[in-house]
Amino acid sequence: MAYDAVIIGAGPSGLAAATRLAHFGKKVCLLEAHSKLGGLNSWHQVAGREISTGLHAFTNYSADGRGGALGKLLRQLRIKFRDLELYPQNRSSIRFPHCSLQFDNNPETLRLQVAERFPSQIDGFDRLRRRILETDEGEITSRRTSAREALSANITDPFLMDMLFCPVMFYGNPGGVGDGLDSERDAPDMDWLLFCVVWKCIFESGMSSPLSGMRTLWEALAGRFLADGGELLLSSRVRRLVVEGGRIVGVRLADGREIVGEAVFSSAGRCETMELSELGADGRAAPAPGEISIVEGVAVLDKPSVSIGMRDTAVFFSFSDRFAFRRPDTLVERRSGVVLAMDNYLVPEPSRRQILKMSQLANYPLWKKLDRASYREAKTASALGMAADLAALGVRLRDGRERPGKFGLFDDFFTPLTIERFTSHAEGALYGSPAKSRSGETRFPNLFLIGTDQGFHGIVGAMLSGVAMVNRHLLAK
């Protein structure tokens, strides 16, 4: 049977794209390499708790689900806001050695913090926000411009500039030279449109968390997809895109089966998708993978996070007044990172969510070189380093635990190799390739990118990407 669309990857973008197409009567086959839905945003058991893998925040929060990117997504997929069971953050902070800025889901909170701590910069900050709000981050363009240049035109204090960059980069900068920017400069930079995407996710809309994690949403979408006649194949890894006459005519699975489709939508990533085609090495340079990857430790606590010194929902920190954001020269970059307390979302029964996550930048090539024994030792050593860095932030992780963890004070610990294994992103690139395809188009006329490498980030952004690309390239026709 030939399908109207074959979709590679049952993560947020793939599930959204498949659900949208099936609702309009299209014959769709959704392929997922793993046995679970969700991609990096799946779920697993840690110390007896079900935890949404990779989930820090469900961004683009809306108090009623009617406005912004979230409202648009809910309308497109016919999801009821109440079914998401979203609960907002308490407060979060950007913490540098000589200054901290607090923010929450009210944009005015961050503005007041800037006005108080950087009074000479508030007019420039207001101009910057106006420019961000006026920017259409969904613009279909191949032009990439510097976010640092845009900030420099409005913010004259480099310290404030670095503080504003810190959360945005940790939640969205792919890194690497493919963004058309100078990756060797001392000051970190990223594409302006991508900066606007992430800024709006975090600061203009805000952060929240689904009460039951992401599993409920993924299974609900999959159920609707199947009820509308879609076909879902789990544990079905795509090994090759089948090319005939300059078009993709289908995909070949690892077990040898071939799935035929009129169009293919891939959430595998830009360079990864091209590598699946027989023309992936035809002499035309494939986009380079992003350089940014992370290590993350997960600790299940026996006490509330606030009792051990973690009062914020999230802390984006730098131990240096100048923020550095690039692939480190060591296994782990300990000068900065993100700490998240899941029980500091305003949820009922927070005792069920006493989970702390900590992420720091990591060097994929160095992790890749380790043999099995060295890899295990490096995970334990890196987890010990995280605990020490938490202590430097005033978070006494040891006081919140009554038992040892698998990795010292952490119950789980993943590396760039873990990301590569569960997402197939080359080199464990957390945010895919720096070279985004805003239109979703590729060198093949019926192969389209969805998800991170199309240009939107976060769970809501990825789902909107899937919806927007099938609307544009299939339903509109």
SS summary, helix count: 14
The biggest sheet amounts to: 7 strands, mixed
CATH topology of the largest domain: FAD/NAD(P)-binding domain
DSSP E strands, number: 18
Overall mean pLDDT? 92
How far is the N terminus from the C terminus?
A: 21 Å
Name the helicity range: 25-40%
CATH class of the largest domain: Alpha Beta
Model regions low in confidence, pLDDT < 50 over at least 5 residues: none
CATH architecture of the largest domain: 3-Layer(bba) Sandwich
CATH superfamily of the largest domain: FAD/NAD(P)-binding domain
Q: Please tell me what the overall shape is.
A: globular
Strand content: 15-25%
- CA-based gyration radius: 22 Å
Structural class: alpha/beta
Question: What's this entry about, in short?
Answer:
Helices cover 32% and strands 20% of the residues. It is an alpha/beta fold.
Characterization of the model:
The protein is an alpha/beta fold and 477 residues long. The chain has helices at residues 12-23, 68-77, 81-84, 107-117, 122-134, 147-152, 158-170, 192-205, 215-227, 270-276, 364-368, 372-392, 416-423, 458-475, and strands at residues 2-8, 28-31, 43-46, 49-52, 86-88, 92-96, 99-103, 208-210, 231-233, 238-244, 247-253, 258-266, 293-300, 314-318, 336-341, 355-362, 412-414, 447-449. Helix 1 (12-23) packs parallel to helix 14 and helix 2 packs across helix 14 (458-475). It is globular. The two termini are 21 Å apart. The model has no long low-confidence stretch (mean pLDDT 92).
